[in-house]
Design goal:
- The chain has about 220 residues and is of the alpha/beta class.
- It has one domain: 3-Layer(aba) Sandwich (Rossmann fold), CATH 3.40.50.
- The chain contains five helices and nine strands.
- The protein has a nine-stranded mixed beta sheet, with helices on both faces.
- Strand 7 and strand 8 form a beta hairpin.
- It starts with a strand and ends with a helix.
Length: about 220
């Protein structure tokens, strides 16, 4: 199956995701929604990878394609096609499947999150980079996979879909761009944490993609 990687803004690229898909021989195509007036045609048989973005899922008036993207998500989950949502992408999955998305405590930087008991992916404690100002309720029937102290709902699974509020895919260059406006000491501390935590994040991303693409 081919995956459609949907980008909502140039500042939130797929990072390591595409490299890992290529290493597995998984066919995928990148679609830059911010350069188009609507969703591309021909996605009715593809799996979906939904990346982040600065907009809210509640901004349908400014971004009418958000409604179409949610319909696409519902169809994909209904068909059992794999759907991975990262940050905004996770919020889109939640909203598409009937849950509320609303403002949260803003988070930017590395956090230690907790894997939920008996979840299939995450250890009891793991590092992840956060960059968001909204959170979501769980859709009915979803399984909570990971939690945080400031923002509880951090990862969930429902049917063929997996939503991650945090970023496992970000490269050092992307994180440097996301933190460029921080004070010098804070920015340097984040860079040091990135060097320390990125190998673990990459290993978790491998597990996430293996779970998503399981037969």
């Amino acid at each position: 199956m081919e995956l459609a990687v949907l980008l909502h803004d140039p500042v939130e690229p797929p990072g390591m995701i595409c490299d890992l898909l290529e290493s597995r021989g998984v066919r995928h195509e990148i679609h830059r929604l911010y350069e188009a007036e609507g969703l591309p045609a021909g996605l009715d048989r593809a799996g979906l990878v939904l990346m982040g973005g600065p907009m809210s899922v509640n901004d349908q008036d400014r971004h009418p394609w958000l409604e179409d993207e949610q319909a696409l998500i519902r169809d994909a989950v209904g068909d059992g096609r794999p759907v991975l949502g990262v940050c905004l992408g996770a919020q889109l999955i939640a909203r598409a499947l009937g849950a509320r998305v609303y403002p949260s405590v803003p988070e930017r930087g590395w956090r230690t999150l907790a894997g939920a008991p008996r979840n299939p992916l995450f250890p009891p404690a793991f590092p992840a980079f956060e960059l968001h100002g909204e959170t979501f309720d769980l859709p009915e029937g979803a399984t909570l996979l990971a939690t945080g102290d400031a923002v509880r709902h951090q990862a969930f699974a429902i049917g063929s879909a997996l939503g991650l509020q945090f970023h496992l895919e970000a490269t050092p260059a992307v994180i440097a761009a996301w933190t460029a406006d921080l004070p010098g000491a804070e920015r340097e501390g984040c860079a040091a944490e990135t060097a320390r935590h990125l190998p673990a994040a990459r290993r978790l991303l491998v597990d996430v993609l293996d779970y998503l693409l399981r037969e």
